[in-house]
């Protein structure tokens, strides 16, 4: 059946080429939309995902990582006394402005952490050392900030929230979903910079490590009952909560879903029209096969084989083009995520698109009367 389907596709090479082109266009858009969406979701929780710790404590009813509010610091010391907790660190995340070299300001996201433990701080450094932050009014900025802040060099000074700070390091991999540059400082300096956090009695997060062998889910459940004034999440839960906020509350998820749906329909229409026209052109040949004893199932297999060949060829080209386009996305400061789960999902979607498009043609051949051979 594959050989017959292949001969039918190659019979009209021009039509088959434009069909393949349509599939490549539709599936490539699906690949890119999914990849960009996953990249955005990855950046939305990038600090949570790369911070060492099992449990996150945050203000009550906080919507996501970027907009949590401070809570009393005494809770941090209570958490340290918990038998199931072996270590905990405070973390401040707040918003501020940085003054540009040539005037004007730019909004930044300030992350204050303990330079000794490194919890909540940058996990990759292009230059400098995070431990230098504890020695004074210093900060680290991610390399992705250069498009917003201009050229940055170790040793230069910038004003952040009217405080003169010196750049002592450049991190990598900390691209923010909000596109605001991420600035790292020591916990104590961040608390001084951000007035609403308070002077010495507040924190925005506590990140805790559970004892070896302890069940994180059970520990979280117990802590929620004992700490009603804050929200308690496992690392995975808080990461997902943050991603869902940006996905649903901002409408980002719906816009990407709508685009993917449109691309799917376009691909289905292109493939469906091509296979249907091909079926119409070869209607007498299918009638001949029926007259010779071919069953509806066998004839349907020929059409479905055409759909499968289109799907395989189109997907192969799309996957290759998507892999080759990753450097292009990186050059324009966008993250295109490609993993095996997404690759399988797009492949299955391509199969559904092509098989679904052949449904009308399958119904058409089932209704063929072999007597069509004797009609004028």
List the helices and strands and how they pair.
Layout: H1 2-11, H2 13-44, H3 46-49, E1 55-59, E2 71-72, H4 74-80, E3 85-99, E4 105-113, E5 125-128, E6 138-142, H5 146-149, E7 157-160, E8 163-171, E9 182-186, H6 187-193, E10 202-203, E11 205-210, H7 216-226, E12 230-234, H8 235-249, H9 252-281, H10 283-291, H11 296-331, H12 340-357, H13 359-366
Parallel strand pairs: 4-9, 6-8
Antiparallel strand pairs: 1-11, 1-12, 2-10, 3-4, 3-11, 5-8, 6-9, 7-8
Descriptive report:
With 376 residues, the chain is an alpha+beta fold. The protein is 51% helix and 19% strand. It contains 13 helices and twelve strands. Helix 1 packs across helix 11, helix 11 crosses helix 12 and helix 11 packs antiparallel against helix 13. The radius of gyration is 29 Å and the shape is elongated. The relative contact order is 0.18. The mean pLDDT is 85.
The succession of helices and strands, N to C, reads HHHEEHEEEEHEEEHEEHEHHHHHH
Number of strands: 12
Unreliable segments of 5+ consecutive residues: none
First-residue to last-residue Cα separation:
29 Å
The rough form would be described as: elongated
Percent in strands: 15-25%
Structural class by SSE content: alpha+beta
Name the average pLDDT.
85
Number of contiguous helices:
13
Please bin the fraction of helical residues.
40-55%
**Rg calculated over all Cα atoms:** 29 Å
Largest beta-sheet characterization = 10 strands, mixed
